[in-house]
Amino acid sequence: MWLLQTSDVKWASRWDTYLLMSDDQIHWFSIVNSLMIVLFLSGMVAMIMMRTLYQDIARYNQLETQEEAQEETGWKLVHADVFRPPSNAGLLCVYVGNGVQFLGMTIITMIFALFGFLSPANRGALMTAMILLWAFMGIVAGYSSSRFFKMFKGTEWKKNTLRTALVFPGIVFCIFFILNCLIWGEKSSGAVPFGTMFALVFLWFGISVPLVFIGSYFGFKKAPIEDPVRTNKIPRQIPEQAWYMQPIFSILVGGILPFGAVFIELFFILTSIWLHQFYYIFGFLFIVFLILVVTCAEITIVLCYFQLCSEDYHWWWRAYLTSGSSALYLFLYATFYFFTKLEITKLVSGILYFGYMVIISYSFFVLTGTIGFYACFWFVRTIYASVKFD
């Protein structure tokens, strides 16, 4: 005989007892420790930057003669080149648009999961919600991409829109399709059915692509973003840079701190994916995501400031790659996790692991790169709009 018993536990939290991962005390300690360290570093870096910038702007605005201005060095000297369109500006617009699309999908998915709308009782609900939200976020991808494309004085907005709609999802879909063919070859029940693949293609071309074109149309119709300073026709010569300011070294260093903000949580995520455990601690995940956003923004701004002070004005792509390089460390950690935590011996299983981790790392690159780019774009416009120029 069954007895009905009332409970004060909310419906969204009734799975917590069964689905929480093991070693929850270690999880709590590691997350709090990571939060405190990153917040301390972020606050310290922010205070240093604000104090230094305040002194720079005050000193530049106090200059009275042109001779004094010519004696100055630093980021003010490149004001006539800092907004010069970068090489491969169209590709940068494409990746920025895709990053905004992925960022919007991530935020909304986390909010839904945080409030219990996506219960782990339905194992496919989270992935389904992410794919649907990604498709509907196509409108912000087109809008963001076209706004920068017009600012860079691009004219073929339809071509740029098509690349925004096809490049990132096309690469992800090709890798996913090849991996699924390997699963089909093994005659595994884990293969995605043909009907589901057709549904994904329909979401892509039937919903996402048209929304990208709609967003791009409205974005290109708006007035272009105006630079706070004028750009000279003749590019300024960049002085020889120190070894620690070389692009490769600077980019690789910039990705360490964002990865450090998430690598502890990454362990639990990889465990939930590859060791068949449920991940149900979305509150911690949201906090770590906020830490990641702040860290990507601040480390990119700091390195961009040092770059401009060394009179190197090619900051557009480096801003994107600086925080985006954290994806390289993510993939290296995934490789370490494969050899230390997993016992995969079959070749196909190993290919599947690294194939899916390439997709995850690539998506992480687009996400973090866009965060760093927007932070740098706001920072550069702010500091150059604060200084008086003749």
From TrEMBL:
GO terms for biological process: protein localization to membrane. It holds the Pfam family EMP70. The keyword Membrane applies. The chain crosses the membrane at residues 26-49, 92-118, 124-144, 165-185, 197-220, 241-274, 280-306, 318-339, 351-380. Its main location: membrane. InterPro entries: EMP70, MFS_trans_sf. Keywords: Endosome, Membrane, Signal, Transmembrane, Transmembrane helix. It is a multi-pass membrane protein. The lineage of its organism: Eukaryota, Viridiplantae, Streptophyta, Embryophyta, Tracheophyta. This is Transmembrane 9 superfamily member. It is found in: Endosome membrane; Golgi apparatus membrane. Belongs to the nonaspanin (TM9SF) (TC 9.A.2) family. One of its GO terms (cellular component) is endosome membrane.
